[in-house]
Design goal:
The protein has 140 residues and is α+β, with helices and mostly antiparallel strands. It has one domain: 7,8-Dihydro-6-hydroxymethylpterin-pyrophosphokinase HPPK (Alpha-Beta Plaits, 2-Layer Sandwich), CATH 3.30.70.560. The strands form two sheets. Strands 1, 2, 3, 4 and 5 form a five-stranded antiparallel β-sheet that branches. Strands 6-7 form a two-stranded antiparallel ribbon.
Length: 140
């Protein structure tokens, strides 16, 4: 018997370049990770930038994955996908071609320096709450 499979909610966002194409790339790249399957995707919605920053609006989407990866491996894979999509880390909440955030990872609770699960911003992002609710029927 292999490693346990866990359900993971991952938020995708983009506000630079071809935003739709960046989200599509993220969905495909996440689904192609070892031991990982894409279960469902929420609708894509456009949102204003966080913290009132002067930048283009975002396209956002939540995906539900099933994976045997660890949270750390999923974080590193997400950051690698962001880099391949041209992500350059500058200001917090700054513009980006692609943002991938682990929102929930099974029933886990982690509090590491660079990885907190559930994501600490979850209660403050209405669009994430809507997207999670949309995906709930697909989570067994």
């Amino acid at each position: 018997m292999g490693p346990a499979r866990e359900r993971v909610y991952v938020a995708l966002g983009s506000n630079l370049g071809d935003r739709s194409a960046h989200l599509q790339y993220a969905r495909q790249a996440l689904a192609a990770l070892p031991g990982t399957a894409l279960i469902a995707s929420s609708a894509v919605e456009e949102t204003a930038p966080l913290a009132g920053m002067d930048q283009p609006p975002y396209l956002n989407q939540m995906v539900l994955l099933e994976t045997t990866l660890t949270p750390r491996a999923m974080l590193e894979a997400g950051q690698a996908i962001e880099q391949r999509a041209g992500r350059v880390r500058t200001a917090r909440w700054g513009p980006r071609t692609l943002d991938i955030d682990i929102v929930r990872f099974g029933e886990r609770h982690l509090a590491e320096l660079d990885l907190i699960i559930p994501h600490p911003e979850l209660p403050h992002r209405d669009f994430w709450l809507r997207e999670l609710a949309e995906l709930q029927p697909y989570d067994r």
